[in-house]
Amino acid sequence: MIVVLATLFACGVIVLLFLLDYDRKAKVSAAIWLPIIWLSLALSRSVSAWTAAFGATQTGGQSAGGVDAVQMLADGSPLDRNVLTALLAVGVLVLISRQSQVLKIVQASPWVTLFVLYCGLSLVWSDYPEVGFKRWIRTQGHVIMVLVVLTEKDRVAAMKQLLSRIGFLLIPLSILFIRYYPTLGRYYDIWVFRPSPSGVATNKNELGMLCLVCGLGAVWRLILEFQGPRLAGRLRRAVSQLALLAMTVWLFYTANSATSLACFLLGSGLIFARGLGPFAKSKKGAHILAGATLGLAFTALFLDSSGLLVSLVGRDATLTGRTEIWDVALALSGNPLTGVGFGSYWHGERLKKIWDIYWFHPVQAHSGYLEMYLNIGFIGLALLAMVILAGYQNLAKGFRQDMEFGRLKLAFFVVAIIYNATEAAFGGSIWFLLLLSIIAVPSNRPSAAAPKMEQIPLEVATDPMRRTVGI
Fold this sequence. Notes:
Largest sheet: 2 strands, antiparallel
Order of helices and strands: HHHHHHHHHHEEHHHHHHHHHHHH
Distance between the termini: 85 Å
Radius of gyration: 24 Å
Number of helices: 22
Low-confidence stretches: 56-67, 445-456, 464-471
Structural class: mainly alpha
Number of strands: 2
Strand order of the largest sheet: 1-2
Mean pLDDT: 83
């Protein structure tokens, strides 16, 4: 009976949050549901995992080992593939209807295009081109969904709906699952030998990622509501975001995901500080904030040999064994210039050798930059660096013109850079956030141009003397 009441209460909370945040003046198309569904799946579970959730045994996402496990990892699920292909197809149709805007965005972000094309080209020398191609297509899905968001008429309203609707649905469900549906909301953690919370995700790190994205969105929305103009419904929208933030903080405490929590604190500090006196509307102030945050993270991760700073979030100097995995992965790397091909490193004989060394069977390098090097080499890593540098320039250009969205994009940018230091996330939801922050979007504001010829009377336009004297 208690479980039924808790379920009804959670559903009521979800409906109430949606009602409190509703804004009938928001000019956002129904196409925004495509990235909402896409990112919701990326932040929770795959479709096949959801369909099997009520009968599946939770294993924390770790593979069982052996040749069959390696092959299953490469093949994936036909159901997931079909659903994601359908979402991509509809997303492409939406972008075709907005092709003029899409072309402008693509032209304004050439390094992103070049990086995407190089990743596809690397499949030519891949040992497992079919596997790499599937993963490349899925990664491009993030690009398509980001373009759907950025081509909305009101990009700020689109971002508000994207982050809020995901949070309103997945955060309360995570609490419900953890408290009242342990077979759904918990998994057996092989590191601590006991059940650990996962919520709607598959393990605590993925739950931390969900909290990171939704938490930053809630902080951003709260600051906009209190610092922005006094619009109708301001109080109820602030209440919905405050409730979402409170639930997210509880989940952070429950999940104990150090990387996500540290990124959340740094990102929230950036969003808040960006609106303070010396940093508000100042490009130099934004540079100082971004540089200081990245410098602090870099020092904690790589320069603090004592491990004092990382110990503040419950980790040791080896970053929970990540440095050992980095050494093993580098020892089995391929061509240093070109890598082994996009999405092809963690497969086949190479993967089996690593699994023979590590009983917990890692499937990533736990560093986005090392992951890029292993798959696409120094050339790909250099292109990624150009994507980041050019993207930051695009971000900096919009600091003054786009303050509302700009402070969130700055937080997303810095968080993505830091997060990938200890997790390989350039192909997942963090890649989605990075693309949102760095892709250049031409301004929709009309420029002050000279009057069009057809607006001038014909007799004036054809008479030089009358045009000169303004008759």
